[in-house]
Amino acid sequence: MDGTSMQYAAFVQDEFRVSPRLTLSLGLRYELARPFYEKDDKLNTFRPGVQSVRFPAAPVGLVYPGDPGIPRGTYEADRNNFAPRLGLAWDPTGSGKTSVRAAWGLFYDLVPGQGDFFQAGTLAPPFQPLTEVNFPTTSPDPHFRDPLAGLAAGPAGFPPGLIFIGWGSEFTTPYAHHYNLTVQRKLGDNVGVEVGYVGSRGYHMP
Predict the structure, then answer these.
(1) Which one-letter DSSP state was computed for residue 172?
(2) Tens digits of per-residue pLDDT, 39-74?
(3) Sign of CA dihedral 51, 57, 58, 63
(4) What is the chain's alpha carbon radius of gyration, rounded to the nearest angstrom?
(5) φ and ψ of 205, to 5 deg
(6) Residue 107's CB: how many other CB atoms inside 10 A?
(7) Measured between alpha carbons, how far is 57 from 79 in angstroms, rounded to an integer?
(8) Backbone angles phi, psi at 167, to 5 degrees
C-alpha cells in the first residue's frame, strides 16, 4: 500500500473594538480534506447493483477506481467546509468589575474512517482477497487442517466468502458547534467569581 491524502486549511480573523465596553472577535476558517487514494488504485467501494468494468469478475456492487463514476479516492471531496467563529467580551456596567464573555464556532473533523481506506486496500479483492470460513461446532476438522476444502470454487481473485470494506458514494465531513457563555465578577480587591456554561453539538459523527 502506498497511499496519500492531502488536507488544506486557511483562516482569517480580526478583533473589533465596537465601544469601550464591547469587543468582538470574528473569524472564518476553510478546510478541505482530500480523499485518500492509493498509488496503484488498489481500493474498492460499494455501489449496489453496479457491475465493475475494471474487474468484470467482481461481485455485483463491488467497484474500483477507474470504473465509470468512481474517483480515485472512491468518493468526492466535501468542498463546502466553511467554519465561522464569533466571540465577544462585554462590560455591562462600565465599572470594570463585571464581564460577560461568549463565543461560538463551527469546527470540522477529518472524514471518518480514513484509516479504513488503508484497511480496504489491504483486504480489497482481487489484490489481497481475504476469505471468511465458518465451521460448525460439529466440524470433523477442529484444527482447520484444510479450511478451504469445503468452499466452492469462484472466479480468480474473488473466492466465495469474501470480506471487503466498501464505502458509499457520499460523505459529509463531521462537524460540531462549540459554544460557551461566562460571567465574571470581581469581589473586593483579591476575590473574583465566575459562572460559565460550555456546550457542543455534533453532526455526522462516525
Answers:
(1) -
(2) 888 888 888 899 999 999 888 888 999 999 999 888
(3) negative
(4) 27
(5) -75, 145
(6) 15
(7) 34
(8) -105, 155
